[in-house]
Write a structure and sequence with these properties.
about 375 residues, 5-stranded antiparallel β-sheet, about 60% helix, 2 domains, two-stranded parallel sheet, 7 strands, alpha+beta
């Protein structure tokens, strides 16, 4: 297990002010909320009590953390165990999924053997497979493998669901017409049933005409549909998040620091802010480029009847889904986390060290993934 340094303690304490984002699954906050409401969640996220109060994050390994792994891990899944669930300023212990000695560290810390932890370790592996911790994708990933924690763990509002369903409906209308070869635009109810089927946990018999159109079998079709679902989610999220992202970046760049500031620290704040602005624009362009591949593949099928092109896209989609998820996960996290920390009308901060730590975390998360 790894100890938090002073910077890590400040970052961990900051998590106490927020709940889950696309990069943070704050089970500790959810557990404390349930305790305050004097009720226990009927289906916990993890079976182990300590794990169920942990904080799971998607984390870009720092230079001094790269040695924890046998191979290059651009974005790792980090498990943080607070030393005091009520006061995160005390610090915590952490371990990365699949770091060197991971299983032994988990068994030793939790005081259980691997057999007793089998279900929880499986859930951690499923989270590790995802590029981000967006609640919709986490819920669907777990459901696909027959894990169904309480809905309280997933901050998905009915209005979010309704907007996503409407977006999916508009995205696949032409495709449904083609798949059913109706010769006319598909009826609203048919399109709605098909879009709901695509957003459902597993591809079922309702998607058989689509499967036949694409010529995909079994696991290939299941994986392709899950990745497609991810693309639909990220495209919807991209459209919903981008306007707010620009507001956050503008506020970040103009935020003043109250009081006297060491010139070196002030220079660092300015440098990191400039880097974040550049890297956010690069992340937006990268996400846009990947989404264009999806749009081109879908248009090739619906406009030209070229099923092979979209079939090829679906076969390549799992890899593209990971790349898109890394970009969108960080973009969404910055918006959510910033809004939890700062009011839209706020124009200055008082603690320059915490502000600089936050900026450095954003900058690190946006940095290009290195291959070694």
């Amino acid at each position: 297990m790894n100890n938090a340094n002073s910077t890590g303690v400040r970052s961990l304490a900051a998590l106490a002010k927020t709940c889950s984002t696309s990069r943070v699954l704050n089970l500790n906050a959810i557990d404390q909320s349930a305790l305050r409401a004097t009720e226990r969640l009927h289906t916990p996220f993890f079976q182990d009590r300590l794990l169920n109060c942990a904080i799971i994050t998607k984390h870009r390994p720092r230079p001094d953390e790269i040695e924890y792994f046998h191979e290059n891990v651009p974005v790792a899944t980090k498990i943080i165990f607070p030393l005091d669930n009520l006061d995160l300023r005390v610090g915590g212990r952490s371990v990365f999924v699949n770091q060197i000695g991971y299983l032994n560290a988990m068994c030793d810390f939790l005081g259980k053997d691997q057999v007793l932890l089998d279900a929880d370790l499986t859930v951690l592996e499923l989270l590790n497979e995802l590029p981000s911790l967006d609640p919709f994708l986490v819920r669907e990933q777990l459901k696909r493998h027959n894990f169904t924690p309480s809905d309280d763990y997933f901050a998905i509002t009915p209005s979010d669901t309704a907007r996503l369903e409407k977006f999916a409906y508009n995205e696949i209308r032409e495709l449904v017409t083609l798949a059913f070869q109706s010769g006319a635009e598909a009826g609203g109810e048919l399109v709605k049933r098909m879009s709901n089927a695509i957003l459902a946990t597993n591809a079922d018999h309702r998607l058989a005409p689509l499967q036949m159109t694409l010529g995909l079998e079994g696991e290939q079709f299941q994986r392709g549909i899950f990745s497609w679902k991810g693309f639909l989610y990220y495209k919807w999220q991209f459209q919903e998040t981008r306007p707010e992202l620009y507001k956050v970046v503008a506020q970040m760049q103009s935020m003043k620091i109250r009081g006297r500031v060491d010139p070196t620290v002030g220079y660092l704040v300015g440098t990191v802010r400039g880097s974040i602005k550049t890297r956010i624009q690069e992340a937006i362009e990268r996400a846009g480029d990947i989404l264009s591949l999806y749009d081109d593949g879908l248009a090739g099928l619906t406009k030209k009847g070229n099923a092979a092109e979209f079939r090829r896209f679906l076969l390549e989609a799992p890899g593209l889904f990971i790349e898109l998820g890394h970009a969108m996960g960080m973009i969404s996290h910055i918006v959510s986390y910033w809004r939890y920390q700062f009011r839209p009308s706020q124009t200055e901060v008082t603690n320059v060290e915490e502000f600089l730590d936050l900026l450095k975390d954003f900058d690190l998360g946006l940095s290009p993934r290195e291959v070694r």
